[in-house]
Amino acid sequence: MTNKKPININSVEELTCINKFGTFFGVPQSVFDQVWQELSSPEKNSVAYVSMEIGADPDIFHPVQDFLKEEKYTKSIDPNIQKLLDKYLDGPRKIPNYSGGLGVLAGDTLKSFADTHIPVMAISLLYREGYFSQLVDSRVGQIDQATTWSPEATPTLFQLQDPEHPGQPLEITVHFFNEYDHPTEAKAHVWMKMEVSEELDYFVPEFLLDYSIPSSPPWVREAGLRLYNATSAIMKANQRRMLGSGILPLTEALGLTPNTIHLNEQHGVAVTLHLILRQLEKTLGKEYRNAMRDEDIITAAQEVAQHIVYTIHTPVKAGHDRFARSLYTGISHETCHHILNLLASDADSPHEYNFTAFAMRVNRAINSVSRLHRDVTRKQFPDVADKIKAITNGVHHLSWISETRAELFDNTEELAGWRDDPGVFAHMKLRDEQSFRKQLQQAWHRDNQALIEYINTMLLDHRTQMDTTWIDPPNYLSHRLPEESRLLPGVFTVGFARRFSTYKRADLIFDDIPALADILVKNNWRINFLFAGKAHPQDEPGKSVLKLILDNQEELHTRSNGLAQLIFIPGYDMRIAKMMVSGVHTWLNSPKRPLEASGTSGMKAAMNGVPNLSVMDGWWVEGYHEGATGWKFGYDGPLNADSLSEHPDTLLYAEDSQSFYRLLPKVLELFYERHDEYMQLAVNNLRLNVPIFNTHRMAAEYVSKYDLELPAETDARIKEFQKLYRSEPSDA
Q1: Can the peptide bond before residue 594 be classed as cis, meaning omega within 30 degrees of 0?
Q2: Is residue 598 domain-resident?
Q3: What average pLDDT does range 310-322 have in this prediction?
Q4: Does the global pTM surpass 0.85?
């Protein structure tokens, strides 16, 4: 999505760049050299951003592909460049190394670091079988299927080469220990994804460790195959330490010199162990294991903490890694146990190590992902409460604003520069707001038509597949005659898409289907409910919630006399997400407050002007603006001891669903009978929420934690983004 030609690029050959680790494509050589020099500077003026998952499919944001198409660069006399052109123009668009919001947030964050020229590298794992692919059967529910993909064929991905052995993959060695306190070597190849800025004048490298190679032990290969492989506790523990233990060997092999390590959740916190061990050796000498005392470990941890920034993403207990001390005895050496006994202890569970607690104790800055989440996290971790600040999440506006909306914004004089600065929307003074509103409505209708056409095609495909596969289509409408099963554009459409977990209460609004249907029948209001998302393969309660959505379809259709259609879209990914957030008329979020730490899908809808219909949880507490941008329902009172419970008896289904039923008629009446007022909510979202809930602003807030020396022009730009919003008002 770009309407600007990158400066100083006059031929496709100028997008080829090289260094001792290989040949790459996407930015000029001068840009590549500049970035690499910044990341390897002796001044250590850069950051390593560590995340277990990174959502960066090149099918929703693809500046290099856009440039090639706009400049009609499809052919080259150089066969090597031609291969790259073919890959970028026609190659696969999926990198399935993410499961949901955490990974997509990581990808959006890195895109904004690239756009704003912040010296950051990212580190994650490359999963040869990705995250699972989802099939959905109306009788069975979710069916988990292995994902197959080819990193070699995927644009933006490059396998690094060994400088000492041309033509051979770079292979790094990562040391682990076994139950006998003996070292074990694992090997990993290194891939680099180039997250290129919109103007192709900067990039953030994402380094992905590929442990699934013959030279690694079988247990390492298996743990590295699939994201969040939780078939056993030891598999889960190994995957986490493969991420954390690989960070220092990777940066040293590449000659990179980050001074700060930003842990995007605690999955990679094992790197802190390695840094503490190095610090102990530095102060006590090579025999430190025999000489160290508890106070030496605490002192070393305090020194290491000056290099760690930590973002916590959830108040939910299942989101915090805990491992039995007995398990860790078998996979690490005695010195590690000593450190963990001091720093990863869990008062509520003395027989386990709590890695969230470990990350909370060893850092120079902790941030939550919304203001409400900050308050909850302070209650959960009172020992470090004073240290916990809010940096509310955002989304990458260039990725999530639809092409039709973007075209409108490009052609609106008062929004000049919106691509570089989403803060432009805050000062949007339109000479002819009525005309803008009409054009926004037309763009919205085109996006809704595209989404509905996708759904109708999907329903037809599912009906056809009944004859050729054993899968029973997941949608009731696929079993009806074609003329009875087409959705219509322009019908009020509600979107819901996220991970299926019990606390997110995907089935909340269907708690009393007769009451819901009665609202529609009395007023003859049509409505579409579009649901998508995956449950973790080991989350049986989450799968049960997904199955309930399927089971409610026929009853809702029948009781509403066909006015309500409930559709489930299998295989949720970033491409489907972009269609949904721009094509629906409202975005539904129904978690039990305050268990949704942030929630970014609703921000993506707001980027397109789409109002939210949400419980007052996570980001919506900050984005609601007293009803100017959407609606609230459900309990929003004080938090108490039951608030963090996920027990079925505490999930407030009856209370919050009734609150939704009281609100829904007001929403539908506004949409169908006072549409101008509905459109005002859309314009309000652009003015009030786009400037706040974007990753440019969020990245700028993170930069304030990084202690970087930035060029004057970059620093000035970052300071302007920091002025857009203060997640932590006390920092103003």
Answers
A1: yes
A2: yes
A3: 91
A4: yes
